[in-house]
Amino acid sequence: MTQPMDDTPLEWLALARGTLDRAAQHRRDPAWTAAAWKDPRARVVVVRDGQALVTFEPEPRLVLVPAARAPEGDPWLLGVDETGTPYFGIAGDLPAVDGAEAAGLRRVGALLPDRDSGLLTEAVSLEHWHGTHAFCPRCGAPTEVTAAGHVRVCPRDGSEHHPRMDPAVIMLVRDDADRVLLARGPQWPADRRSILAGFVEPGESLEQAVAREVHEEVGLRVRDVRYLGSQPWPLPQSLMLGFFARADDPSALRPDAEEIVDAAWYTRDGLAAEIGDGRLVAPGPLSIAAQLIMRWYGGPLPGMPAF
Ligand SMILES: [Zn+2]
Q: Which of 3, 54, 176, 287 lies 20 to 30 Å from 90 when distance is taken between CA atoms?
């Protein structure tokens, strides 16, 4: 008999924990943003190549500097906390801070407290977007930063350009025996396995993307596509949308050999045994893949801390 799927929303996602009010209503108010930048409480996260300063003792924390210590540049308003303290991001050389190390989301995204994880996720996203959108896609003129760092405008034709992200579906496929499909991409280490994922194409719904990607990568037809949650994945600019789906016929499994070189069905006991003896490495807690697998598994995987 087919077991019902627990498709209630995922509760904890490492990069979806931001706590600030983004204060978007102030972005086009230069007087407000200038006053916020001069506010002695204002704090700035400086980002360079996807990394910011972090201190690890007594526990991981993002290093935030007063605006006066931030490098020159165009600051981005990241948000305001419940006390009214404004937070900004800026691209530039990381300041010298005793005991701090440069770290990116892969290392600290799951370790930082909620506010800091949200700040770093937003700042890294904006740094990448600004760094790759210096020119107008219509006419090629250099664009200028406006709206407190959330819009770029072309001075020649007046067109406005907003931060881009690429939607990607990631789906845990189960069969009627409640086994999970795990697969390996060609560039991955030999012991690494995860669930399937792929980018949404133009003119396609999320549900269509799930069905297409699964069929392309492993030959299976799926039904009962259910959305469980999302998180930004600015590595460099994706938004991951997580799903469960059920395979019609698990025996139809045929890895395409290009995007997927190896795929197999796992029971809970089988997965635990392979992780336990080191034959299989599952995704880390930063990823929505890990959260989807743990939802299916019924708790933390062997050797993985419960987040
Ligand atoms: Zn232009």
A: 287
